[in-house]
Design goal:
Length: 217
């Protein structure tokens, strides 16, 4: 039996550990990719998030109009998770609606400049487009609608300051139906139900497993 120097044993042990770590990373990456690409049912979201909604069937078309880059297939579970981590998830069509959530969509600059260009571009392509956002920390709540390339309603309220930050266009019928005194996150969800779909209500009984896309702005 050949006795190896201690130093060589240390080197061999380190190489084995390194190989094991590499294999583990490769397998983990394969698991993540498989999870991203396995169709699943919609999962609810909406609170502490921002999102667009349009009537459309093809996620890729919506993703391109939002100028997303690095697009990858993603199911609902992973897509929504990544939407809360800085990416944008473009969902598969649900009852004729595509939703595109992402915390990165919450406007930092003045609302009209941050929201209107993408919303108007989407409405030019799909007839109408909607934007919603709600933030529990600053109690900021936003909704907007554009029709045929023109913003026709935009509203933003800060509960932290008690100020209306944005009030573009006339109040729409669905807003009057809600009959709210002070906007909150539930107001945003109620209006989403009346205008299009409320993501907090997902999944619906008729939903089927499907894939969307995830990307960066």
């Amino acid at each position: 039996m050949v006795l190896l120097p201690l130093a060589l044993w240390v080197i061999l042990f380190g190489a084995v550990v390194l190989l094991a770590m590499t294999i583990r990373r490769v397998l983990k990456g394969a698991e993540n990719r498989a999870a991203l690409a396995k169709p699943d049912l919609p999962v609810p979201f909406g609170f502490k998030c921002a999102w667009y909604e349009v009537r459309a069937d093809e996620p890729l078309s919506v993703a391109n109009r939002l100028n997303l880059r690095g697009l990858k297939s993603a199911n609902w579970r992973e897509g929504v998770k990544k939407a809360y981590e800085g990416s944008v998830f473009v969902s598969p069509s649900v009852r004729g609606w595509i939703l595109a959530p992402g915390t990165c969509l919450f406007p930092n600059s003045p609302f009209p400049q941050a929201i209107s260009p993408s919303l108007e571009a989407l409405s030019l392509a799909y007839g109408q487009a909607y934007f919603f956002a709600t933030d529990r920390i600053t109690e900021t709540h936003i909704w907007a609608r554009a029709t045929s390339g023109v913003l026709d309603r935009g509203f933003g309220y800060s509960g932290e300051s008690g100020e209306i930050l944005w009030d573009h266009g006339s109040k729409i019928e669905e807003e009057a139906e809600i009959s709210f005194d002070i906007a909150d996150e539930q107001t945003v969800m109620d209006l989403a139900r009346r205008w299009c779909l409320c993501p907090a209500d997902l999944p619906f009984p008729d939903c089927t497993p499907a894939l969307g896309l995830v990307g960066k702005r």
